[in-house]
Specification:
This protein has 285 residues and is an alpha/beta fold. The protein is built from ten helices and seven strands. A seven-stranded mixed sheet has the order 1-2-3-4-5-6-7. Helix 2 links the parallel strand 2 and strand 3. Helix 1 packs across helix 2, helix 4 packs across helix 5 and helix 5 packs across helix 6. The chain is globular and about 55 Å long. It starts with a strand and ends with a helix. Bound molecules: adenosine monophosphate, zinc ion (ZN) and fe (iii) ion (2 copies).
């Protein structure tokens, strides 16, 4: 079983890298991509845990960028990145700096709405250095202000809601450039979240991203319908892109998503990792 899209406590997942590795090994995952938001801090611990024992598990180093896009969200994944690349590390640090500027403003908006919540509580509840709305949502759940993380987003934190604070995001071209500068493969995550108006609209976006160097799209994903998966597979073929896939496992923040199998019927085909690896090698020349 292959899962190339997961989060740890380094960003907004609820499992530490070690816990995620143990879970992957017991679930029968053989290749695990770790794709935390704006940080690669979980990679080392995950690799050490995988090397320490249990069933054989390959860790694919990854990262997830939130790029500038409207009206939906555009997430770009980077695979097989060099975790020591200075340019990548600099870009990730800048992303986290922007988060740390935005988070207190979100908390202030919640305070203004009457919630007793502080940035210190949010930071204390987070396990790593890439902190965002899910951590704020978790504090709201813990304090009984909302029943779930989903409700916190739907009523307060989502775009258009009272505590939403916009954030300057990285341009798609820049995210792709940085991923590739670090020797990585740039993949468009969960394309349906772009909320394309039509198939041809999506195709236009993908064509533009391809022009910027995009190498793959996330065809297999927990929340894709069979129709979406089929459409993305065809799109990837037409544009010469690698099809990738993963669950976007977060643990408790996304309780309906399980490692490896997503909502139950995710299946990332064998060969996916080799295709990505080949793309990374080809780009390195
Ligand atoms: P941020 O990076 O701080 O802007 O927060 C966005 C992240 O929150 C996304 O990448 C998701 O992992 C998570 N997220 C977004 N919407 C929801 C939701 N409705 N329920 C749970 N998590 C969400
Ligand atoms: Zn997340
Ligand atoms: Fe994402
Ligand atoms: Fe993700």
């Amino acid at each position: 079983m292959i899962d190339l899209h997961t989060h740890t406590t380094a960003s907004d997942g609820s499992c530490t890298p070690g816990e995620l590795v143990a879970l992957a090994q017991s679930a029968g995952v053989t290749v695990l991509g770790i794709t935390d938001h704006d940080t690669i801090d979980g990679l080392d611990a995950a690799r050490r845990a995988a090397a320490a024992g249990g069933s054989p598990l390959e860790i694919v180093p990854g990262v997830e960028f939130s790029a500038e896009y409207s009206p939906g969200t555009m997430h770009l994944l980077g695979y097989f990145i060099d975790p020591e690349n200075g340019e990548l590390l600099g870009a990730l640090e800048e992303m986290r700096h922007r988060r740390n500027t935005r988070n207190p403003r979100i908390v202030a908006a919640l305070q203004a709405a009457g919630f007793d919540i502080t940035i210190e509580e949010v930071v204390a509840g987070a396990g790593g250095d890439s902190i965002g709305r899910p951590h704020i949502a978790a504090v709201m759940v813990k304090k009984g202000y909302v029943a779930s993380v989903d409700e916190a987003f739907a009523h307060w934190l989502d775009r258009g809601r009272p505590a939403y604070v916009s954030q300057e995001r990285i341009a798609p071209a820049e995210a792709i450039r940085v991923i590739q500068a670090a020797g990585g493969v740039a993949v468009l995550a969960h394309p349906y979240q772009l909320r394309p108006q039509s198939t041809s609209h999506l195709e236009q976006i993908v064509r533009e991203l391809r022009g910027l160097g995009l190498q793959g799209i996330e065809t297999w994903y927990s929340r894709h319908t069979p129709e979406m998966t089929e459409a993305y597979l065809a799109l990837a073929k037409i544009h010469g892109l690698v099809s990738s896939g993963g669950s976007d496992f977060h643990g408790t923040p996304k309780p309906d998503i399980q490692l490896g199998i997503g909502c139950g019927n995710l299946r990332v085909p064998p060969g996916t990792v080799e295709n990505l690896r080949a793309s990374s090698r080809a780009a390195k020349g």
